[in-house]
Amino acid sequence: MLTLDYANCLADRVTPAHGLDPAALTGPLAERAEALTAALEKTRGTGWERWRLLADPEGTRNAHVEAVKAIAAKHADKDWENLVVLGIGGSALGNIALQSALNPPTHNLMTAGRKGPRLFVLDNVDPANFAAVMAECPPEKTLFNVVSKSGETAETAAQFMIIRDLLARAVGGSASDHIVAVTDSEKGTMRQICDAAGYDTLPVPDGVGGRFSVLSPVGLFSAAMNGIDIDALLDGAHEMETKCRNPELAKNPAAMLATILVELGKGRSKAGGPAKPMHVLMPYCNGLYLLADWFRQLWAESLGKRHAADGSEVFEGFTPIKALGATDQHSQVQLYREGPNDKVFGFLEVEHFGDPLGEQVTIPTGLGVDALAYLEGKKMGDLLNAEKRATEYALVESERPNFTIKFPSVNEHAVGEFVMLWQVATAYAGLMLGIDAYDQPAVETGKKATFGLMGRDGYAEWLDKVNGTLSETGHMID
Ligand code: PA5
């Protein structure tokens, strides 16, 4: 079970200017959390909060798992060398995070014992990157998992059009055997393409936005194909979701995380010190580093809003930052301790790194150098956790609030808990800030401008707007 330790966010540890008043956490903030929990109970499983049912056996879970396993089983026999996921944003970051947390970093290099095909997630339209991956993945040996709710996302659509063409030339009439699409079950451009071509499809469920979709077939299919235990993942998520329905703030980790980050983010420490709108997530574990990328999208896109739900202009939001311990102690901690006190730090700590790869790595004895004798016979994991604790201490000494989410070990159950914890925390934070956590209106302008620049019918005015605004001036250095 994950634990959340927030003692270092309180005034007695990091001073009243930078920490929360513990009395507020049992008084007005606890009352607010109770009211918000009641509000979330009413919207749970409705509208854009249907993601809350993804791990619930009484919700949509069983139907999704059954469908995912059926298609994964069909492909298990085919001995694919590669699985290439095409998607972007919420249609890719969760897949990447699950794979990097739950399979070895050498997964694609393994010649024996690899659980599933090599996995590549193409979440950009960098042609050099795309070409390099495709050079390694001959279409005849590759299964393509295209993930797009709309089918109109330019990046994914472009990749998919190229892949279809490559497949048609390489395998002709059996191209559809190489494609599993995850898309809207009824409408949208991708749905039309799938219906016409007869691809196997899995649903992006209704009422589940991209950044809340990793526990749906969006994330589950590539995970299942690569040997990740999706039942355990969803068990962990369900357990956390249940815990996060508790109206008592002190027993509800999502409500507590949101309370800490929103209150400190808005400068409402005990003595009203500087606001801390920078939220750093710093795993002391390489495997969890890309979960921080998934978190960045969730926190940024959900909470960064110009308008409140009532239409007033508020410019809310916090800047999520990722860092890796201990690596970034040697590149960022100088700033974190002595730069502006405008950040809240979240450490991810792992108790057991797992046999046989993790637990056994021990530093040998016998070097005979006094300055390094303290390392002899110690486990590498103990060194990493000592560095985490040392950094935690150093931040407290500099009056920098920080919390720790501890993983007993990195497994499916714990990762499922982590994903659900942040999703529910985001729902609370949205209510606390008074914004809609489920839309992303600011993303549209860039999309429309791209359509204009790329000559899409009906978007010519955008081409004029872009070129008019960005016309050349003399303010340039050759
Ligand atoms: O979180 C989101 O809604 C976005 O990041 C989308 O997932 C992303 O834009 C991809 O959209 P689609 O699945 O329609 O291709």
Summarize the structure.
The chain has 478 residues and is of the alpha/beta class. 43% of the residues lie in helices and 13% in strands.
Poorly predicted regions are none
- What's the SSE pattern? EHHHHEHEHEHEHEHHHEHEEEHEHEHHH
What class would the helix/strand composition place it in?
alpha/beta
Please provide the count of β strands.
Answer: 12
CATH topology of the largest domain: Rossmann fold
CATH architecture of the largest domain: 3-Layer(aba) Sandwich
Note the beta-strand portion. 5-15%
How many helix segments? 17
Cα-atom Rg, whole angstroms?
24 Å
Average per-residue pLDDT, rounded, comes to 96
Element layout with pairings:
Elements: E1 3-5, H1 11-14, H2 22-26, H3 28-43, H4 61-76, E2 82-86, H5 93-102, E3 118-122, H6 127-136, E4 142-147, H7 154-171, E5 179-183, H8 189-197, E6 200-203, H9 217-225, H10 230-243, H11 253-265, E7 278-283, H12 289-303, E8 305-307, E9 313-316, E10 319-322, H13 333-338, E11 343-352, H14 380-397, E12 402-409, H15 412-433, H16 443-453, H17 460-469
Parallel strand pairs: 2-3, 2-4, 4-5, 5-6, 7-10, 7-11, 11-12
Antiparallel strand pairs: 1-12, 8-9
